[in-house]
Every structure is written in structure tokens, then in C-alpha cells.
Amino acid sequence: MNVTLALSPLWLTLIGVFSARQLWIYFVCAMRLKMVRDAGQLTRGQTVLGYTALIEGLLIDLVFHLIFGSLIFWELPAWKEWTLSARLWRLSNGPPSWRQRLALKVRKGLLDSLDPDGVHTG
Description:
This protein is mostly helical. The protein contains 5 helices and no strands.
């Protein structure tokens, strides 16, 4: 595959959609691990497997946040904003704009109900 094909809008869209799905799956796993940990029921095996999965998820999050988050929100991440969740929280609590509406839609539609706290703050 040549570089032009790899960077085509179709390929970037497919990679972005697949990456977003993977990121969401890791988020669901992380929230469940948080619930089990907070209930004091996390076993040693779950800790080892869970925390290695968290590391994988954070790496995917960082790359997705830097590349696709910047394309979707048409801005570079803020300084010390390492995750997409942090960007979504900042934007959804910022001044009214299309970015705020999109961040709220993503956060409320995909993340808040899965967070044990009821609101995903990043």
C-alpha cells in the first residue's frame, strides 16, 4: 500500500471509526474494573490483566486524542490534556459553540451512563 492510499480520506475515516470503537471498548472495561475495585472485589489476576488492558487503552486514547480528536474538534489539545476524556470534559464545560455541543453529545451519549459516578469527568 502506498502512502497516498494510506492517507486517503476513506482510509483515515475507517481507521478513525475502528479506533473510536476500540477506545470505547477499553473505556467500558476500565469502568467495570473501577466498579469491581471500588467494591473491594478485584482479584490479583483481574488486577494484572486489567491494568495491562488499561495501559493499552491509554496508549490508544493518547494517539486517537492527538490525531483524530484534533481533526474532529479542529483544534490541538490543550497543554497537559492527555486523554480524549479530558478534552471532552473541557469542551463540554466551555463556552457555547459547536465544539461544546459535539463534546456534550459524545460524553452524554457514550460515556456518562457507563461511568460509576454517573458523569464522566475525564
